[in-house]
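User: Here's a structure from my thesis project, written as structure tokens. My advisor, Dr. K., wants to see whether a designed sequence matches the one we expressed. Can you design one independently, without my sequence as a hint?
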């Protein structure tokens, strides 16, 4: 494997890991607020300090899958939603309506569904990375 390709793969992996932390941090914060929980209340339920919850919500702390599952239970959602893989039911209905309105979007989704799991994963990473970049700009 040449050095340029290896560097690119490492860079993509690093950016991807940072983006995942930002996504679940934002979603944890949004669900906490929807449930009208304070950081202190969530920290007590999760066994973290209040400052750790703040750092998790800002994407500074990377969580293992088991802790994401625990956050999902406490926040009455799914690990997939917190990770940015799934939409909440009301979001899914609105999204489906948007997809069906545009022939181009419908075709893109149809083609995405025909891809291998590894290719789908690569696309999700690219989209997450672009969204994070867009927020910074």
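Assistant: Designed independently from the structure alone:
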């Amino acid at each position: 494997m040449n050095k340029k390709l290896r560097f690119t793969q490492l860079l993509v992996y690093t950016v991807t890991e940072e983006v995942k932390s930002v996504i679940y941090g934002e979603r944890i914060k949004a669900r906490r607020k929807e449930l009208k929980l304070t950081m202190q209340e969530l920290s007590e339920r999760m066994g973290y300090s209040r400052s750790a919850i703040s750092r998790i919500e800002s994407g500074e702390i990377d969580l293992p899958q088991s802790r994401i599952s625990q956050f999902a239970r406490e926040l009455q959602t799914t690990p997939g939603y917190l990770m940015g893989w799934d939409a909440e039911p009301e979001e899914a209905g609105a999204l489906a309506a948007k997809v069906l309105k545009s022939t181009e979007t419908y075709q893109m989704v149809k083609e995405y569904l025909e891809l291998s799991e590894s290719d789908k994963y690569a696309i999700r990473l690219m989209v997450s990375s672009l969204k994070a970049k867009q927020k910074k700009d």
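When you compare it with your expressed construct, this may help: Confidence is low (pLDDT under 50) at residues 12-16.
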